[in-house]
Amino acid sequence: MYAVIVTGGKQYKVAEGEYLKIEKLEVATGEAVTFDRVLLVGNGDDVTIGAPVVEGAKVTAEVVEQGRHDKVRIIKFRRRKHSMKRQGHRQWYTEVKITGIQA
């Protein structure tokens, strides 16, 4: 069984037992999270598509870790102007383990 959920402005295809890194959620490690915005639920050939969400469907997950991704380096370079700017960014994430899909 799988589902497509929306969180942090992005869509993710998830299955039970899967680990997923999503945008940071203000939830402590070890707590449960419920995703109510489920766009699609599939079980073999039986697929339910929402308009825009599937009524009564939800995906539960457990927060495994809070952390930061690898550094992304940004360089702004202006040719012939003797100008260059370097910048770095590390995005926060929440790693969750999908524990159940209910449709």
Automatic annotation (TrEMBL):
Pfam family, any one: Ribosomal_L21p
GO molecular function: rRNA binding; structural constituent of ribosome
Annotated GO biological process: translation
Record carries keyword rRNA-binding: yes
Keywords: Ribonucleoprotein, Ribosomal protein, RNA-binding, rRNA-binding
PROSITE patterns: RIBOSOMAL_L21
Domain of life: Bacteria
Family: Belongs to the bacterial ribosomal protein bL21 family.
Assembly and binders: Part of the 50S ribosomal subunit. Contacts protein L20.
Described function: This protein binds to 23S rRNA in the presence of protein L20.
Annotated protein name in UniProt: Large ribosomal subunit protein bL21
Species of provenance: Thiopseudomonas alkaliphila
Lineage per the UniProt record: Bacteria, Pseudomonadati, Pseudomonadota, Gammaproteobacteria, Pseudomonadales
